TrEMBL record:
Transmembrane annotation, as ranges: 251-273
Species annotation: Caballeronia grimmiae
Record protein name field: cyclic-guanylate-specific phosphodiesterase
Xref: PROSITE patterns: EAL
One Pfam family here: EAL
Lineage: Bacteria, Pseudomonadati, Pseudomonadota, Betaproteobacteria, Burkholderiales
PANTHER family: CYCLIC DI-GMP PHOSPHODIESTERASE PDEC-RELATED (PTHR33121:SF60), CYCLIC DI-GMP PHOSPHODIESTERASE PDEF (PTHR33121)
UniProt KW Heme keyword: no
Length: 437
């Protein structure tokens, strides 16, 4: 392998290991981000439902208080009338003030200040209502000229009114998620904002209601429309900073992805190194049965007649033939030589089994390694194989290199067993090793 090939393999290894490490971590990050986004949408939906329930409940309570004032059977602004109004305001926590006005909208009396006949507030007139229902209910949004000084929501009917703090619509929403989003309540018929959390932009809220799209500074929006009242709530979530996003990520997914990525990287590194190493490629060749057999004729010099052939193993690797002296030592060292020998035997019997049955005076020589001459393993494989093919034992001869006889005592016993079984044993390439296998 030249330097270019080594560099290419190293680059390939880096790419594969990097991909194996980063892909699961990236998937974990994507899943974490999607999970966080889905959870945020679900929280936003819960908040929107809670906000709509709150808005409808406050409206019902205020309408109920206004209805009770309408049932007071006393002369408007009389002492008993004002006493009844004060009782109603005490009974309904949502009501800030209650009172009466004349046909021209001039303020007549208040549960807080009593009858207005002269003085500072004399002649105060209500402007035209911001909204009027079909049954005569009028609403003023954001009035600041009535008792209390703060901007008030005013509901009036038939010359009497109540005032309330608009923030009631957005404060006290029954959910732990209220701090996560901006809430605004609008009158859908008047297209007016009734109430909103701090920094609510009325024009932006109305645009969101019309388009159902989040404003530029928000990442998500939820709109809920009341089925029984001209009310809608708009809940939006401000865009998070990158620090907030990092803190809100489901880190379990992310750490899980990193852990899987590291495991995949280790596996990929092991797999790639194993595959591109000589032993890994040889092991893969054994698994894929990439070995072929070449036959070198054996000629009787006296008669000049071909009496058999020597089976020579070759490795067909990437459309080229690898000589045995390049891979046999590696196979012996890596414990693969016996599997290769078995494949050689299978190939010989498959290719020449029928020939040997018809010409019983021909034989094939098979080379054995040292490991197969120290045990009876190959003999136990050889016997049933030739019996199944109908080949006589004399037609399979054994050849071994001088290295096979390093353990002479063990080799002597195995050689004797081969000969008793009918297989001749020869010493091959004495003094030359594997050079002519």
């Amino acid at each position: 392998m030249n330097n270019f090939q080594r560099g290419a393999l190293a680059a390939l290894l880096i790419v594969i290991v990097g991909t194996a490490a980063l892909a699961p971590a990236g998937i974990g990050l994507i899943v974490a981000a999607r999970s966080e986004r889905q959870q945020r949408v679900e929280r936003l939906s819960i908040l929107a439902d809670a906000a709509l329930y709150r808005a409808e409940d406050i409206t019902r309570r205020l309408s109920g208080a206004l209805g009770e004032i309408g049932k007071v059977n006393e002369t408007p602004c009389s002492t008993p009338y004002l006493h009844a109004l004060r009782q109603i305001t005490l009974t309904h926590d949502q009501v800030r003030d209650a009172g009466a006005y004349d046909r021209d909208g001039r303020w007549q009396c208040s549960s807080l200040l009593g009858a207005v006949s002269a003085g500072t507030f004399d002649g105060l007139t209500l402007p035209p209502p911001d909204w009027r229902s079909s049954d005569g209910l009028s609403a003023w949004y954001g009035l600041a000229r009535l008792p209390g000084g703060k901007e008030s929501l005013v509901l009036g009917r038939d010359g009497f009114y109540i005032t309330a703090d608009p923030s009631l619509y957005v404060d006290g929403i029954d959910t732990d998620l209220a701090h996560e989003g901006r809430v605004a309540v609008i009158n859908t018929e008047a297209r007016r904002v009734i109430a909103g959390t701090p920094s609510t932009d009325a024009s932006a809220v109305l645009a969101v209601y019309s388009q159902h799209k989040p404003p530029p500074d928000c990442s998500a929006v939820a709109v809920r429309q009341s089925a029984s009242m001209p009310l809608a709530v708009i809940v939006s979530v401000p865009r998070e900073t990158w620090r907030q996003r990092v803190r809100s990520l489901p880190w379990g997914w992310l750490f899980g992805g990193v852990a899987v990525g590291l495991a995949c990287a280790c596996w990929a590194a092991y797999f790639v190194v194993r595959r591109i190493s000589p032993r890994g490629q040889l092991s893969d060749a054994v698994r894929r049965h990439q070995f072929i057999v070449a036959y070198q004729p054996i000629v009787d010099l006296a008669t000049r007649r071909c009496v058999g052939a020597e089976a020579l193993v070759r490795w067909k690797h990437h459309d080229r033939i690898v000589r045995p002296d390049h891979f046999i030592p590696l196979a012996e060292h890596g414990g693969l030589i016996q599997a290769i020998t078995d494949q050689v035997l299978d190939t010989v019997l498959l290719e020449l089994g029928e020939f040997l049955r018809h010409y019983d005076d021909y034989y094939i020589s098979v080379n054995l390694s040292a490991s197969d001459l120290t045990t009876h393993r190959f003999l136990d494989v050889l016997g049933p194989a030739i019996e199944q093919q109908g080949v006589r034992p004399q037609q399979i001869r054994i050849e071994a290199t001088e290295r096979a006889f390093l353990d002479a005592d063990a080799a002597k016993d195995v050689i004797s067993a081969f000969r008793r079984a009918g297989h001749a044993v020869y010493l091959d390439d004495f003094g030359t090793g594997y050079s002519s296998l």
